[in-house]
Specification:
With 127 residues, the chain is mostly helical. It has 4 helices and no strands. Helix content is 86%, strand content 0%. Helix 3 (56-65) packs across helix 4. The longest helix has 56 residues, at 71-126. The termini are far apart.
């Protein structure tokens, strides 16, 4: 079994994939399907992957600096870090939204209670 892989083709595919991903994120921002604040991490990591795709030696340097002997493993580590940071960002956003929903529903309950009390006072005055 001959596994003769042309590394240039893999590099071109990685570059194309990174560029397409960046364009996809920009299009989501343009269509207002993704808020700019949430897209920052996606764009940062897409640019990191694009730069590592273009500059192959950079991946070897980065992996050497962090003590990983197999450079693609450093790429997977970067991917995992990116996913964890994005998940943390989403958890923060969800927590804030949950807290806001709780406050809004409590305020709505208080307003309903006040309206009922006002209606009762008005019906008493009419009698």
């Amino acid at each position: 079994m001959n596994l003769d892989v042309n590394i240039n083709i893999i590099q071109y595919i990685a570059i194309a994939g990174s560029v397409l991903f960046i364009l996809f994120i920009i299009e989501l921002i343009r269509k207002k399907a993704l808020h700019e604040a949430y897209a920052i991490l996606w764009l940062v990591f897409a640019l990191v992957f694009l730069s590592l795709s273009i500059w192959r030696k950079g991946l070897e340097i980065v992996s050497g600096l962090i003590g990983i002997s197999y450079p693609p493993a450093a790429l997977f580590l970067t991917l995992m870090i990116a996913m964890f940071l994005i998940l943390i960002q989403f958890s923060i956003v969800i927590s804030k939204l949950s807290e806001n929903n709780k406050k809004i529903s409590q305020e709505l309950g208080l307003l309903k209670m006040e309206m009922e009390q006002l209606r009762k006072k008005q019906t008493r005055k009419r009698k």
